[in-house]
Amino acid sequence: MTTAVSVRNLSVSYHGNQALRDISFTIQQGKMVGIIGPNGAGKSTLLKSMLELITRDKGHVHILGKPIKEVRKEIAYVPQRNETDWTFPITVIDTVLLGTYPRLGLFHRPKKQHKDWAYACLEKVGMEAYSNRQIGELSGGQQQRVFIARALAQDATLFCLDEPFVAIDVTSEEIIVSILQELRDQGKTVLVVHHDLSKAETYFEELVLLNKDLIDIGPVKKILQPDIMMKAYASQLSFLKLNEVRV
Ligand code: ADP
Ligand code: MG
């Protein structure tokens, strides 16, 4: 098996507050892996620091055995919904075409073949009828499908998605999940930040459980054991108990 992601001793802080502490783990290629943990656990920070979108205090990350700057084209990233400016004036098809740019190279205009490919990716997510719409005119689920099409257009090897199922409709979620599973079956690696634990078992083979520290990583069934989950969610659970007492 080939290593898709290797994270070694990764620490990240914001203005002196540590968000991730000495995280190390490895993910093999061809897996669909969920990154779970309570709110503020550092899940988004993990993806962003892995991809060098924010600076690290320390640590090394290798993707496909190489430093990130050598494999950027191989990585598709779909940020958390609230980090995108959905009022930005751009059409659906142009959004998907952006996915082809890393391979196109700077200063090269997309040719017909790229447009055809972008359109095919839109078809894959069932959004071809909306190609000339402004991205801001779509529902949450439709917008997320367009971003998945952009990731597909990039023809990446590693897909990193931050809470892709938040605030979207059931149909969009089903379409996106089946596309991600298909990518996994083709040998691609899919990392998904996710917080709906009820779906974790059906969606993922492996879970990374975070709460500032790496609590554990392993097969879904192993991680979803109460004693392991308690280590990450204990503070939330005691809060819930407190509320129950008050009621
Ligand atoms: P998660 O995605 O698991 O909810 P985040 O990675 O967004 O968690 O955040 C981890 C911690 O870092 C939280 O305490 C959050 O408040 C803090 N944090 C995240 N982004 C920033 C930022 N840009 N500036 C300051 N603190 C931040
Ligand atoms: Mg987050």
UniProtKB/TrEMBL annotation:
GO terms for molecular function: ATP binding; ATP hydrolysis activity. Signal peptide: none annotated. Keywords: ATP-binding, Nucleotide-binding, Transport. It comes from the Bacteria. CDD domains: ABC_Metallic_Cations (cd03235). PROSITE patterns: ABC_TRANSPORTER_1 (PS00211), ABC_TRANSPORTER_2 (PS50893). Pfam families: ABC_tran. InterPro entries: AAA+_ATPase (IPR003593), ABC_transporter-like_ATP-bd (IPR003439), ABC_transporter-like_CS (IPR017871), Metal_Ion_Import_ABC (IPR050153), P-loop_NTPase (IPR027417). Residues 5-237 form the ABC transporter domain. Belongs to the ABC transporter superfamily. This is Metal ABC transporter ATP-binding protein. It comes from Paenibacillus psychroresistens.
